[in-house]
Amino acid sequence: MIEESVIRTVIERTDIVRLIGEYVQLKRRGGRLIGLCPFHREKTPSFSVNAERGAFYCFGCHEGGSAVDFLMKLENLSFPEAIERLAERLGIEVVHTNGYAAEKRVTAKSRERSYLDAMKTAQDYFVSSFYLDIGSECRSYAAKRGITDAMVKSFELGYSPESWDGIVECLRKHGQSLEDSRELGLVASRDSGGFYARFRNRLMFPVHNVKGEIIAFGGRILDKSETAKYINSPESPIYTKGEHLYGLYQAKMHITREHCAILVEGNVDVVMMHAFGFCHTVASMGTALTPKQAALLYRHTKRVYLMYDGDNAGRKAMYRALGILLEPGFEGLYAVELPKDDDPDSYLRTYGAEGMSQLIENAKPLGMWCVQKKCTDIMALPPELRKSGFGELSELLHEFPDKLAQRHYLSEAARFLGQDERRLAVELGMNIQTEGAVSKVPAEQNIECNQYDKIEWDVVHLVLTSDKRFESFMELQGIELIQEPALRALLLEYAEVLDKSNSWDILNSLGENSRKLYEKVICSAPDVPEDELDKWYSGALAGLTRKWAAREHQQLGFSIAEAVKRNDMQSAAALIEKDRRFIEMMQQSSKERQYCWQHEG
């Protein structure tokens, strides 16, 4: 427990405007400070800060509270963690009420600080070496890779000299424990006694925790005669492998602003992505993605674009990452597919920021991408070897924790492989019965197409996936044919999107409900052969037109009956003439919808 007086002092002395200003660009409007809310997507600012009262409130998503509340929600911290973080900013010592527990905590904190100080000393040594004459080769290497001076400073890159003893002497000179430094992986023990530098002649990438403290290093080879391309810090009292993301400290504010993150594999990839303006990029640091890394990412965003290397190893890593990323419940997971021989670094150097933007805009839902790629792999095998491929496909489908999702992707796999769904289910050892299955998605967010008119749903899918169809549809006032309020709202919001060729623009422009609906609509195509879609679409429009005309015909029937009841034969005659047009429209539409009708059931 933290003493109440400390809590009160921290809250009173925290400048809420300065704190929130590090995450949100605030502008003064009248007597208020406003900005775009970091907790929900919006184009018009509805997030307000009251400096005098030390409070914030969003009129859009209704989040509000003090500086502590803000930090707790944004960084997913507990109340004591938020108080300690704010106290550290203010230079206030945190006093705990439980004497024994407090003493243990102070001791642990002191020990942690000594480790962090050793890492900071090493970092200063690497940075100074980078800019000295001994670092000229490293600077040339960085420049050749396209790493700018700004990125060197932003990521605090450095150079570990070839010297076996340089960092040992530096740590000793600054009073750092060499035994602690050995635990941290900065130095290693000699068999004959003493210590030597573990990192030599390497470009150094410090790994920061979310607070910006250096907890580990990654060293990239300069001398090609060395066998290990990268040497990374071992696990230590302040660093656990698989619990941190490289670049998160530099990227976290950009992730908040972009409402998504790009996940890559390597340190250089992160630095290069930032250099080209994609500053919401982080990396799993060359290791397979872990559940703790996924949970850490989930604290900062609910949408992830996965961009691994384009080779077979990168593709397999994407498959493995799928199940791990599905577990926390991300709202949006997308696969950015690089060419076979590229990684993010090489692709940027060839195609630049514009090419990378285009690649990201063409991202596909991760689940669908994995299933389609796995099916492509199966089709490439000789028939006698496909049995093993089916086993891998089954494993992939079972990654989806939701039975409804498993059934959906089984259906997609069957369509892609040209097989009967039930026969494929037997081949994969899957039970396709979904009665009683419970979706992990909250009920209010569980938007499934079977809650809607199937024809309306599929027509909206085709309209949203073709700019030409959308323009024609809106010009013909086709929206009047759509009766489902949520689908109508989606079409109206989509019409306001300025750049419909940019998926980022679309997702950022739509409201929360429409965005979720949009993602589901575009991922559920009609069960119609590709070369017959246009014919089906015309028939579907005719079918919707017939339904609309039938409703109008029914209403006119009531009106005609009322006119006859009033003995107003002139009005009745006019209504009957108007009704004749709707009857003709129904007859004509019935003929045109025949093809669509064959697929409705």
Features:
601 residues; DNA Primase, Chain A; DNA primase DNAg catalytic core, N-terminal domain; Dna Topoisomerase Vi A Subunit, Chain: A, domain 2; 6 domains; five-stranded antiparallel sheet; five-stranded mixed sheet; 26 helices; 16 strands; 10% strand; disordered C terminus
Q: What's the number of extended β-strand segments?
A: 16
| Total domain units | 6
Shape: globular
**CATH topology tier name of the largest domain:** DNA primase DNAg catalytic core, N-terminal domain
CATH architecture title of the largest domain: Alpha-Beta Complex
Share of helical residues = 40-55%
What is the top-level CATH class of the largest domain? Alpha Beta
Provide the residue-averaged pLDDT. Answer: 82
Measured distance between first and last alpha carbons: 63 Å
Strand arrangement within the widest β-sheet reads: 1-2-3-4-5
Describe, in short, the structure shown.
The chain is of the alpha+beta class and 601 residues long.
Structure commentary:
It contains 26 helices and 16 strands. The chain is globular. The termini are far apart. With 601 residues, the chain is an alpha+beta fold. Strands 1-2-3-4-5 form a five-stranded antiparallel beta sheet, with helices on one face. Strands 13-12-14-15-16 form a five-stranded mixed beta sheet, with helices on both faces. The protein has six domains: 4-90, DNA Primase, Chain A, CATH 3.90.580.10; 109-232, DNA primase, catalytic core, N-terminal domain (DNA primase DNAg catalytic core, N-terminal domain, Alpha-Beta Complex), CATH 3.90.980.10; 248-362, Dna Topoisomerase Vi A Subunit, Chain: A, domain 2; 371-443, no CATH class; 447-522, no CATH class; 530-600.
